[in-house]
Amino acid sequence: MKIYDVIIIGGGLAGLTSAIDLSLSGFEVLVIEKDEYPKHKVCGEYVSNEVLPYLKRLGIDIEKTNADQIDRLTLSNRNGKSVNVKLPLGGFGMSRYALDYLLYEKAKSNGVKFQFDTVTDVEFENEKFCIKTNRKELYSELAIGSFGKRSTLDKKLERDFIQYKTPWIGIKAHYRSDDFPSGEVQLHNFEGGYCGLSKTETGAVNFCYLTHYDSFKKEGSVENFNTHILKKNPELKSFLDNSEIIFDKHIAISQVSFQNKSAVENHMLMAGDSAGLIHPLCGNGMAMAIHSAKLLSEEIKAFRKHKNRNQLEENYSKIWKQTFRKRLTFGSLFQRLLLQPKLTNIGMLAVSKSPYLLKKMIQQTHGKPIS
Ligand SMILES: Cc1cc2nc3c(=O)[nH]c(=O)nc-3n(C[C@H](O)[C@H](O)[C@H](O)COP(=O)(O)OP(=O)(O)OC[C@H]3O[C@@H](n4cnc5c(N)ncnc54)[C@H](O)[C@@H]3O)c2cc1C
């Protein structure tokens, strides 16, 4: 029976980064991913620059790609009143279609094995994982759960957060626009949600928003929702009236949950959104997914020497909380502020008058460059 050192369930940013990091240290790694690459995903596609040094160390140089280098933020309230400020650290705009594919190619060239299949169950017995997919059973000493915000596996594992329904849905598409500036990420408020806009490596603009399902359902379709709700913000009206959708249709995800999760579940080590999702307005979920992969890879490398599973699980849970818990709390606070029109206006005024305040706010939901 073949036993891998590590099986990674879910090949998004957290899973692929863990696979690359561990393969560089000689681990035999298998990634099980349900979808083939490349693929579009619902995401704002603005990545904080804090990940650049770590990615470079793994052999991925984002500066050599066509990613849009972003150093400014435009923020508008529901009436379209906006402020434009310089971002302290900045980020880059790259589609998930390209970014996940870049990491996949890197992992493959490092010798990581891939199975394109859906994991249906995970069992832990006699210090080994048995991972069941639609087609077969696979075995490993360690298992990483990096299957994203919400998966049927969460139900199987009876995770607490899955018991609760959530009202949030995310919608996204790429648009062609001659006017949209390079080097800028925009966050526009509308009734019940917010919409992010930024350029990707192809020059297309990623248009992505998060909103409540109930208000969305009333409008019956994305087109109606865009026309009747988003376009009440003149900034969004101007964007939608002067650009052209490139996708055949918008893609959507529902039941986006921001509930607390656990970093270890039935001995499986959780990374990325499987361990906790920050509110998208912070633009830090992808950096957190990549950073959690680094923290986890370090603990797994230490485990190879001490071989104490309890110690591995305790250390990882602790470092995860120390690194991310405060960001999640502030993210949730900022989201509540942004959805209250009066507070948004006060916040925008304060931020436009004091770049220091913006820097402080960003510091609460972002990390330092990951070295
Ligand atoms: C509307 C919205 C906008 C966002 N905007 C931004 C932004 O601008 N900037 C930012 O930094 N973050 C943003 N985020 C957050 C960001 O998208 C996530 O934090 C990031 O994708 C997490 O990566 P991950 O690897 O944990 O999960 P994912 O990228 O979701 O990867 C999980 C993978 O697991 C696979 N999978 C799931 N179940 C199974 C299974 N049973 N078997 C096999 N494979 C499985 C999936 O196919 C998927 O490929 C946004 C989120 C939302 C909802």
Automatic annotation (TrEMBL):
Enzyme class: oxidoreductase
Record keywords, A-Z: Oxidoreductase
One Pfam match: FAD_binding_3
Record-listed E.C. numbers: 1.-.-.-
Coiled coil: none
Boundaries of every FAD-binding domain copy: 4-319
GO MF, one example: oxidoreductase activity
InterPro entries assigned: FAD-bd, FAD/NAD-bd_sf, Geranylgeranyl_reductase
Protein name, as recorded: NAD(P)/FAD-dependent oxidoreductase
